[in-house]
C-alpha cells in the first residue's frame, strides 16, 4: 500500500508543480469569470488530494474516500463549465450565482432559529444589504439547473 501512496503523492506533487510553473493569473473577473472560479477550484483539488493522501497514510480510509468525493465534484464542475466553450462564461456565472441561493437557504434557517431575538434584526439587515431573500427552494437544485447532473 505504501508504494502506491508514494506513487500517487509523487504524481500529485509533479502535477501541482507543473501548474504552478505556468504562473497563471486571473484576468478581469467581470470579463473572464471562469478564471476566478477555475484557479481556486484547481488549487482546492490539490489541497484535497494531499489531505486524502495523508488520511490514507494514517489508515483513515473511509475519511479519505469521503473527502475524495469533493475532488470528483471539483473535476465534474470544471468539466461541465468547459464542455462547451460558447457556454463557458454563462455556466461559470451560474456557478457563482448559486452562492446567493446557498446564502438564501441559510438565511431562512438562521431567521427561523433567531426569530424574536436580537440576532434576527442583524440577519435581516445583512440579507437586505447583500440582496439575499431568505428562501430554501433555490438551493435544493443543482447549480447547473439540471436534474441528474451526474
Report on this structure:
With 150 residues, the protein is mostly helical. The chain is built from 5 helices and no strands. The mean pLDDT is 92.
Q: What is the first-to-last residue Cα distance?
A: 30 Å
* Total of helices: 5
Structure summary, number of beta strands = 0
Class per helix and strand makeup: mainly alpha
Radius of gyration: 19 Å
Approximately how much beta-strand content do the residues carry?
under 5%
Shape: globular
Helix-strand pattern: HHHHH
Task: State the helical fraction.
Answer: over 70%
Overall pLDDT level: 92
* Low-confidence region ranges: none
The biggest sheet amounts to: none
Summarize the model shown.
70% of the residues lie in helices and 0% in strands. The protein is mainly alpha-helical and 150 residues long.
Looking at this protein, list some descriptive labels.
5 helices
SSE order and pairing:
Blueprint: H1 2-21, H2 33-57, H3 61-82, H4 88-113, H5 118-129
Amino acid at each position: 500500500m505504501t508504494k502506491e501512496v508514494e506513487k500517487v503523492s509523487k504524481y500529485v506533487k509533479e502535477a501541482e508543480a507543473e501548474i504552478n510553473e505556468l504562473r497563471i493569473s486571473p484576468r478581469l473577473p467581470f470579463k473572464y469569470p471562469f478564471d476566478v472560479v477555475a484557479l481556486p477550484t484547481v488549487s482546492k483539488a490539490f489541497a484535497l488530494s494531499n489531505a486524502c493522501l495523508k488520511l490514507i497514510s494514517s489508515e483513515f480510509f473511509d475519511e479519505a474516500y469521503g473527502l475524495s468525493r469533493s475532488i470528483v465534484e471539483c473535476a465534474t464542475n470544471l468539466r461541465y463549465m468547459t464542455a462547451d466553450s460558447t457556454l463557458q462564461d454563462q455556466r461559470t456565472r451560474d456557478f457563482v450565482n448559486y452562492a446567493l441561493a446557498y446564502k438564501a437557504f441559510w438565511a431562512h434557517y438562521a431567521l427561523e432559529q433567531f426569530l424574536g431575538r436580537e440576532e434576527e434584526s442583524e440577519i435581516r439587515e445583512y440579507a437586505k444589504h447583500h440582496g439575499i431573500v431568505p428562501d430554501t427552494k433555490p438551493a435544493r437544485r443543482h447549480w447547473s439547473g439540471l436534474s441528474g447532473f451526474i
